[in-house]
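#struct-help
A.M.: can someone run this one for me? Single chain, 343 residues.
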Amino acid sequence: MEIGSPPHEDATGARGSAARPLSIWVASDGRTGIQNQALGLAEAVARLTPADIAIKTVRWRPLFDRWPSGLKTPAMLAPGSFDPRAATDWPDLWIATGRASLPLSAQVREWSHGNTFTVQTQDPRWKNSAYDLIVAPAHDGLSGDNVFEIIGSPHRITPQRLAEAAPAFADRIEALPRPRVTVMIGGTSKAFDLPEAHAAALADQIKTAVQAAKGSLLLTFSRRTPDAAKRVMTERLSALPGWIWDGTGDNPLFAMLTAADHVLVTEDSANMATEAASTGKPVHILPMIALKPAGKFARLHADLAAHGAARSFDGSLDDWTYAPLNETERAARAVLEAMAARG
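D.P.: on it. Structure tokens below:
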């Protein structure tokens, strides 16, 4: 996959229209939610300076997948995975996300003879000094000379991308009454659960709020949403004006966010909350069943509240305004500045 941006001077002033494009490799295990963090950051860099982006998928053979990062070698990579042993021209910039990428990210400096600037998003929790820059969520509490903190996670959402997504779904959305309430439902994780009874209670709260506002509903589930929760929420909310996406066909999430007057998102996902806050729409956090202390999620929601983006859902659809969260671009500028400083 190659993505280019038009020639222009970048934020550091280091590159101009005559310079060759920056080469960027994006590495992850290929799962959308993971890959989009690294890809979103790469695309933000490409909006600031001419760049070509190539996606590298890193997967390990099942026997070795759960092995500690320090024990993995390229010989353990799965067929079809990016293999650094076959790489010749290393990029200017390596941006990676997720556990699968760590054994490669930690060796990019050596393989590239120090010519590739390495960026890891999230908290690597392993060999943190091996990367030139770590773009970490502030709620993780990571510190270090090579750490750049942001609220939430990098992502691919931009005003332009949201606007471009809307026309394809206009026939399903434009006629819906306002306020339009977009709901993003997550699911089971190590920290949270969404049992059927709780999902039913959430659905009843959402239904009451939408009916009271004489609005409409736009709802999506995640891959982690339990089937029982999907079923009961669909049953209780299907009578409302709107659209509950069943997962078939093209994903309408960007169009739903564009159309939204309010966004409701379950508390289990940093990605969903950060993406919602990038819209400038009021973000209401839906409670789930906690399996352990909220910890970093509570810190994230506090950061979003301090920015003015998010509040706990109290059953009402109050309006408020704030500057859309744009942490991905702020991180991209930090990457370019760090690259320029290194020379």
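A.M.: thanks! Residues 29 and 58 are 5 Å apart (CA to CA).
D.P.: also worth noting: Confidence is low (pLDDT under 50) at residues 1-17.
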